[in-house]
Prior knowledge:
The protein has 307 residues and is an alpha/beta fold. Helix content is 49%, strand content 13%. The chain is built from twelve helices and eight strands. It has an eight-stranded mixed sheet with strand order 3-2-4-1-5-6-7-8, sandwiched between helices. A hairpin with a 7-residue loop joins strand 7 and strand 8. The longest helix has 15 residues.
Amino acid sequence: MSDIREGLQKTKRGFFERLTRAIGGKSVVSDDILDNIEDALIASDMGVDTTLKVVDALQDRVERDKYMNFSELVAMLREEIASLMENCPEQAELPSANIKPYVIMVVGVNGVGKTTTVGKLSAMFGASGRKVVIGAADTFRAAAVDQLAVWAERAGADFIRQQMGSDPASVAYDAVSSAKAKGADVVIIDTAGRLHNRIDLMNELTKIRNVMRKVVPDAPHEVLLVLDAATGQNALQQAKQFAAATDITAIALTKLDGSARGGVVVSIADQMKVPVKYIGVGEGVDDLKLFNRNEFIAGLFDDSDIK
């Protein structure tokens, strides 16, 4: 079972290698060194806008004291990056036990690990003692529904499906109704992979919301956008596009362990007003983690790597 620090190994290794090349053996932080730090941040996929914020802040600080060692500069970087992530929770929490059923609508494009994330969430909630219902509202892809059925059985969750091509809103309605009747704690609705520019699919999300509210008036309590960390800045662009098209309340970033682009988490935290709530750090059922801001930053800046 992976943890957040292990999941960030590729990002951290590349990041520190670039920093070492940028400032190794130097005692004065010159403009060239700041340029090299900028390159290192962009290479880790923190994005241009976020990187410039960090570098500008560093420049202001080093102007007061141009003489510093590697450890001092890394400490500055750590502080600046932490300040950009203040909107993310120090420790994300499981769905509130005071709301029953707690309805989560999961959105995202195909290929980002959306269906697998739904399965892992079900296992996480089930392990915490919550009774889970999954609604397979992606009625366009039989393989996704079959995959979700396997996950539901593995997690001990109730599974609601209809024939392929059925109205996704009807599946969502059945799932929420079933959860309410059975006293379930959490309902997870897996929606079809969609692009922001597919107006019909975006309208479908509105329809799903509306029919669920006939059963639970304030549903969904969470709209979770799933993004693939390995796509770097493309993930940020997807987040912006989805946020413009529908109300997103939380983000799950998958495949963080297989990417050297973990800086995109910082970029998303800085650029979006939506908190990162879950991160995927492995293939195992337990490798979807509740996001912990301090643990994430510690994973990027492990003291053992600072010389």
